[in-house]
Specification:
Helix content: 25-40%
Distance between the termini: 32 Å
Mean pLDDT: 97
Radius of gyration: 21 Å
Largest sheet: 8 strands, mixed
Strand content: 15-25%
């Protein structure tokens, strides 16, 4: 390129930060704008299980496998990072659903995904720290899976962001995309405008605002269906344990977390969450403790788990469940990144999107995930 391309990135979560860093690595000039702080929304409350388990479309599976691969490269550079580990994934269904578990295992084997079907008494031989009495009939262990603490990863990437000369604008409020000729004009994206009216000119804009992404592009005449539910992530107080795998079970999803803590998640408690007029959320303390108690049952020795903190908000999920990546047909120069699997795809999506933004060449692995499919 004869001149430096300037890109404005809206969103301080993993997709925005990863893409910003990949752009800077390739010589672009980048302004990253956040509504509040970094990792203040979904990235700060993600279970962030790195996987492509279960049944999904082939292109989505291939992209997720590539996503896990990029984390493996990062892990190999320093296996001692306590915020990125590969201890596998363990899942089981409720009692009476052993056939469904076996069918999932058979499917995973059929596509070459590393999958082991285990009886409860076999679990200890492949992964430590699990209370096998919690497993009713059988379980699947996926040895190649891992987990990441996304706030730690964002901090790690931001060190490189600043080193490479990126510009960070924190607490910008609701940021909008500016378009040549005005919104819905069909003109090209020209930059962004903050809630207070500050403008930043750019050659291209990336909208990576999690569950708010459809609302940000709607004034541009672009409709992206939004299926984002309200969810919660609980982080426990430190407790001694030997667990290395991420567990996905009928009543709790549990992963190890830095500092001998656990991160807890599920969906059964969604009906107990109240959303208030100011956009905040609350949940009864006893419901949070119930999730902690359910999680304790999965861990050898059943240690008492107490919540140190919990965060509630919208979990980004496009209306059809598939990721949304790429340039808007209606607004050239404006790109979007909106997906349920922000953790698993965080590194690979930033890599592929930055290439598209800077070269204009569309990557084939993103071909089925274009926003134009909703037009």
């Amino acid at each position: 390129m004869s001149s430096t391309k300037h890109v404005a990135v809206i969103g301080g979560g993993i997709l925005g930060v990863s893409t910003a860093v990949h752009l800077l690595r390739q010589g672009a000039s980048v302004t990253l704008l956040t509504e509040q702080g970094l990792a203040s929304e979904a990235t700060g409350r993600s279970l962030s299980w790195l996987n492509s388990a279960g049944d999904r479309s082939t292109p989505y599976h291939q992209l997720r496998v590539a996503g896990v691969d990029r984390y493996r490269t990062l892990f190999a550079a320093d296996p001692g990072r306590e915020w990125l580990q590969f201890g596998g994934g363990l899942m089981w269904n409720a009692a009476g659903q052993s056939d469904a578990t076996a069918a999932r295992h058979a499917y995973e084997k059929s596509i070459g995904y590393d999958s082991k079907l285990l009886a409860p008494d076999e679990i200890a031989s492949v992964t430590p720290g699990i209370d096998a009495t919690a497993v009713p009939e059988n379980a699947i262990f996926n040895p190649g899976e891992g987990w990441v603490s996304l706030p730690d990863l964002v901090n790690f990437l931001m060190e490189e962001f600043h080193h490479l000369g990126g510009r960070l604008v924190l607490n910008a409020g609701k940021v909008s995309v500016t378009v040549d000729g005005g919104a819905s004009s069909g003109g090209r994206a020209t930059g962004v405008e903050t809630a207070s009216g500050e403008t930043y000119a750019a050659d291209a804009v990336l909208v990576a605002c999690g569950a708010a992404t459809p609302a940000v592009v709607k004034p541009l005449g672009v409709e992206i269906p939004n299926g984002s539910p309200v969810s919660m992530l609980v982080v426990t107080k430190p407790v001694e344990h030997q667990v290395t795998a991420v567990m996905n079970t009928p009543r709790a999803a549990v992963r190890p977390n830095p500092g001998n803590t656990f991160a807890l998640d599920h969906d059964w408690y969604e009906e107990h969450i109240t959303e208030h007029a100011d956009g905040s959320f609350t949940i009864p303390d006893d419901v949070v403790q119930e999730l902690a108690d359910e999680s304790s049952k999965l861990i050898a020795g059943n240690p008492e788990l107490k919540a140190a903190s919990w965060k509630i908000g919208y979990k980004p999920i496009p209306g059809d469940g598939e990721p949304v990546f790429g340039e808007l047909e209606q607004v050239p120069g404006c790109f979007v990144a909106f997906t349920h699997s922000g953790a698993t795809l965080g590194l690979i999506a930033g890599e592929l999107l930055s290439g598209e933004i800077l070269t204009g060449e569309k990557h084939p692995m993103l071909s089925t995930f274009r926003p134009g499919r909703f037009s």
